[in-house]
Amino acid sequence: MTDKLIEIKDLYVEYVTQKGAFGKNQIIHAVNGVSLDVYKGEILAVAGESGCGKSTLAKAILKLETSKAGTISFNGLDVFKMNKKQLKEYRNSAQMIFQNPYSSLNPKMKIFETLKEPLDINTSLSEIEKFEIIKDKADKTGIDLNSLKLYPHEFSGGQRQRIAIARALVLNPEFIVADEPVSALDVSIQAQILNLLKALKKDFNLTFMLITHDISVIKYLADRVAIMYLGEIVEIGSKSQIFVNPKHPYTKALLNAAPNIDGMKSERTLLKGDLPSPSNLPSGCKFHTRCPHCMDVCKKAAPNDIVINDGHKVKCFLYLNKAENCSVND
Ligand code: SF4
Questions:
Q1: From the CA of 53, how far away is ligand 1's center (Å)?
Q2: What is the pLDDT of residue 240?
Q3: Ligand 1 geometric centre to CA of 198 (Å)
């Protein structure tokens, strides 16, 4: 494995919301003790149902959400202890592509201004240097230079996502979070944007965290996959480890939602019920209320990471004391 770009240890993120007629406060436990490494040059997919905490995790990494506890380091520097200068550099180095290109662009700004704004705010480059950067990023993302004088509403969804990607690139980041980057686009456009992200990763030596619930997108883009459930990473491994030899019952259930994935085992684990509320987390293993393999111990104790083999870890009591390549009959 290559060098670590990001190292997350025991990260917690909570929200306090008001709910009900009496406005009683509720604590939403969005991220619950996540420890995770992101390696330089990889695409790490974080997958799970809507509400599992994957977008909150990504925003916490970028300091767009406040973390309650834990540490995040970027290139060896503790993100929570950075001074002003280091934090500014970090914000330039770590960018985000949002799900919806319609709402992520300012409708009142021409595309050239949209791409120039991060350079105006964060650099002291000359106007000519800024123009050269914008020209380069527009070219690399397939944006016609003549269209830089237009407004966002004059573009299709796919073109707007290209613009959002170009904007994320103008400050030459090392790390990009792509949060459901194609889910708001027509199916016919999705492949173009996925191909673009793949090409950009190579061209600019980027590292990606891909947030998605779409198994086919993971299959196409990811190098490694982390499966998230109620704010925890319940399984992590290389793409082939997760797709060919999934271990956690939840991972199996998620993969079953994509029946035509090549190389996937034909085992079937069907999910029961809905995702429990993150304001009222189940005791023990958080998946026990929906797990077809639930045992007494699962209701009382939370499983820790169990190493299946190189880089493949799972949080599930079924694999305690089992050797490499262990399997559980469904
Ligand atoms: Fe299911 Fe128990 Fe494993 Fe949790 S620890 S996934 S409840 S078998």
A1: 19
A2: 96
A3: 35
- What residue ranges do the domains of the chain occupy? 4-328
- Cβ of 298 below 6 Å from ligand 1: yes
What pTM did the predictor assign?
A: 0.91
**CA 100 to the chain's CA centroid:** 15
Angle, CA of 30, 31 and 36, to the nearest 5°: 155
How many angstroms separate the alpha carbon of residue 211 from the centre of ligand 1?
A: 24
| pLDDT confidence bin for 66, thresholds 50/70/90 | very high
By alpha-carbon position, which residue is closest to atom 6 of ligand 1?
316
Half-sphere exposure of 181 (CA within 13 A, CB side): 31
Position 329 scores a pLDDT of 41
CA distance 270 to 326: 21
Nearest to 226 by CA among 204, 201, 208: 208
Is the Cα dihedral 212, 193, 157, 144 positive or negative? positive
Q: Is the pLDDT of residue 324 over 50?
A: no
Whether ligand 1 lies within 6 angstroms of the CB of 249 is answered as yes
Query: Looking at the domain covering 4-328, what would its CATH class be?
Result: alpha beta
Asked if 288 and 299 count as a contact pair (C-beta separation under 8 A), the reply is yes
103-118: string of b/e by CB count within 10 Å (b at 16+)? ebbeeeebbbebbbeb
215-239: average pLDDT: 96
